Amino acid sequence: MPDRISSEESEGLFGDFIDEKLSDLVERAISEGELEQAPGDGSELIVEMDDIAPPEFTYGDTGGGGGGGQGPGDQGGKLRFGVSFDRFMELAAERLNLPDLTKEGRGKIKQVSYEFKTFGPTGVVLDRKRTFKRAVKSSIAVGEYRPDEDRYTVSIRRRDRRFKQPQRIEKPRFRAACFYVGDISYSTYGDRLELEKRLLSFIHHWLDFNYGHNKVEHRFFVHDVEAYEVTPDEFYQVSNIGGTRASMAFDLVARVARNEYDPNTTNLYCFYVGDGELLRQDAAEIVEIVQEQLRPAFNRLSVVEIKPSAHSCLVNFINRQFNEDRKVRASVMHRKQDVIPTIKHLLGSGRA
Questions:
Q1: Are β-strands 176-183 and 145-146 bridged in parallel, bridged antiparallel, or unpaired?
Q2: Which of 8, 133, 236, 318 could be joined to 330 by an S-S link, Cβ 3.0–4.6 Å?
């Protein structure tokens, strides 16, 4: 005998049905490296979907009346809705399996809460999405749900029900600062500039999502023959000076972090992007600065070579010194499809 379900719950189940469609959209965006469409903090991503036919729901016996109607796509219309920043990032983080980038050791200051993250056959709060999925499978098995025959009836049975259960969640209770460092002595236009923006934009969004709105300070530094702090817009400007000394930028970041932040109460991150074409002495100095000044205070420090040449050497120097290090990461990007593996490697909890 199927359980009865209220009209309000059926609307929630249809909302979960739409949510699953949205998850598929995020999955495609991630698989294709199209993450620049992520909504900004406080804004929404507008999504349009075609040909969505909602299932019908029965309330009681399977022979009773079902929910009404076909989907809005049946007449060639579109379903249009907004996706919040937090929801988009939550779905993307689930697909990429990204951890919370919180400091270990004495800087581990966290706020404990309980959220419904797990599920089971008994409980108080019904998990509508999992219940709906199980009900669809059961209805397919007994021949009630046959989309190819225009039969969309889904019966909610007792054995299909799954309930949300609380799970202990620890979140950072303090602020974070992220340093973005770029080499402007090479031509940062075209494909290189696009790859930089795709990568750093997602990192920017991910940190804001992980720590909460207005709790991350984002600072931008560039270098050619000198190093200096710039605005976010200036960070992506093209320059072709020719010479470069990347170690000066790493030294500047180390001095700013040491003089302006307390690593015991602020999580620190640094992401460097460039072509990696440095003098070997310059690369060796960077390794020394990272080892002695940055690594002890930073949660994560990453170096990315974008479209490197045969003369690029920075990633090799970093990997040689920090190959098994959990804090220091290095990666290479040649094309758009490298964005997602790079993000997973830079932000993941283990070694790639």
A1: unpaired
A2: 318
DSSP state of 149: G
Average pLDDT for the chain: 74
Using alpha carbons, select from 260, 189, 278, 191 the residue that is nearest to residue 219: 260
Q: Note whether 330 and 318 are within 8 A (CB).
A: yes
Q: Measured between alpha carbons, how far is 301 from 269 in angstroms, rounded to an integer?
A: 6
Q: Give 125's pLDDT tier (boundaries 50, 70, 90).
A: confident
Interhelix angle 128-141/7-31, rounded to 10 degrees, is: 90
Answering whether pTM is above 0.90, one says no
Torsion of CA 70, 71, 73, 77, to 10 degrees: 90
Provide the 10 A C-beta neighbour count for residue 88: 24
Cα separation, 28 vs 31, in Å, equals: 5
DSSP 259-324: HH--TTTSEEEEEEEE-----HHHHHHHHHHIIIIITTT-SEEEEEEES--TT--HHHHHHHHHTT
Average the pLDDT over 156-164 and give the result. Answer: 80
User: Cα(252)–Cα(229) distance, rounded to whole angstroms?
Assistant: 9
